[in-house]
Amino acid sequence: MQKKQGVILVNLGTPSAATPAAVRSFLRDFLSDRRVVDLPRILWLPLLYGVILPLRSRRVARNYQSIWQAGGSPLLTYSDALARDVEAGLLAQNIDCPVRLAMTYGEPSLEQAWQQLASAGVTEVLLLPLYPQYSSTTTAPVFDAWARLMSKQAVLPAMQLLADYHDAPEYIAALAGQVRRHWQQQGQSHLLLSFHGIPQRYARLGDPYPQQCARTAQLVAQALQLSSEQWSLSFQSRFGREPWLQPYTDELLTQLPARGVMDVDVVCPGFATDCLETLEEIAIGGKELFLHAGGRQFHYIPALNAGPEHGQMLIQFITQRFAY
Ligand SMILES: C=CC1=C(C)c2cc3[nH]c(cc4nc(cc5[nH]c(cc1n2)c(C)c5CCC(=O)O)C(CCC(=O)O)=C4C)c(C)c3C=C
Ligand SMILES: [Fe+2]
Ligand SMILES: [Fe+2]
User: Fold this and answer.
1) What are the subcellular locations of this protein (predicted)?
2) What is the ipTM of this complex?
3) Which of 49, 139, 236, 313 would bridge with 249, disulfide CB 3.0–4.6 Å?
4) Range of the domain at 273
5) 10 has which bridge partners?
6) What are the backbone dihedrals phi and psi of residue 293, each rounded to the nearest 5 degrees, phi first?
7) Residue 43: inside a domain
8) Was 277 annotated as part of a binding site?
9) Residues lining ligand 1, CB < 6 A?
């Protein structure tokens, strides 16, 4: 059989609408994954179904409404545009390599993406989770979903998983470029690099995520030639009561003005595309916290989204893996 290569870009997932029902369905799928919440099911499921889903879906739906775009959820629209750009960019280099988008939770599913690649005759797949830093809570579930899907297949395609790219020179250069462009237009401020958090316990169990975040932040600061006073690292989006990775972004934003940092630029390098956690939690909520604490100027620097540098970066990862 002739070999043919294809790529699946995988992102987390997002509600299909900014309504309590759609948010509930997304949260139910996501928060039922043992990789995400590892509590014994006998404790977790009554809490999830009895308290979290009924209360959180309504509140979080309102948050989604504040960032919803004409094309739907930002996470979906940017990821979709990115997948199209990468496929077109490969074709422009005479590389016929179909690229599809899939979500770990919800749609488009990994199954839908794979069906399309299989119909196009693909025999070798690169699974490319859009998570620059590996985490057992995000990257590993992509592999789990792939394994579940493949368990139903007689003939398996060859598969490579891009487990992380936290220190890839192309990624660091794309992030540094994004920050530099902002500074050329708006002037330079203290740079806060805010990553999604995970429970500290997961890191103690061996998740390399915090070390990879620290390395990314250090490499970006180095590429921008920043001294240690000119940047900080923090972790956002904590959930539940146990301690998560620290310092917490919301706490740090309220402390920075008292430490003399009156102007801040926040970039979220762990998010390939903008989403609820960047547009609502940081660009809206983070700004409010910082200004309320006495800060003067707050800017959110957008994620790489479907910008040309992002597409080019992914094309380089793909061509390196497939050795065209
Ligand atoms: C419950 C624990 C959670 C862990 C662990 C977690 C890790 C984690 N998440 C991302 C990326 C995203 N998370 C997003 C939303 C989101 N995350 C959690 C919880 C955990 N995340 C929840 C409950 C939600 C939904 C919103 C809410 O209820 O607050 C998103 C945004 C999705 C969107 O639709 O815009 C992303 C992206 C990473 C990278 C990560 C670990 C490294
Ligand atoms: Fe999350
Ligand atoms: Fe700025």
Assistant:
1) Cytoplasm
2) 0.98
3) 236
4) 169-301
5) 102, 129
6) -85, 5
7) no
8) yes
9) 12, 14, 27, 31, 36-37, 56, 60, 73, 75, 131, 135, 137-138, 196, 198, 209, 237, 239, 270-271, 275-277
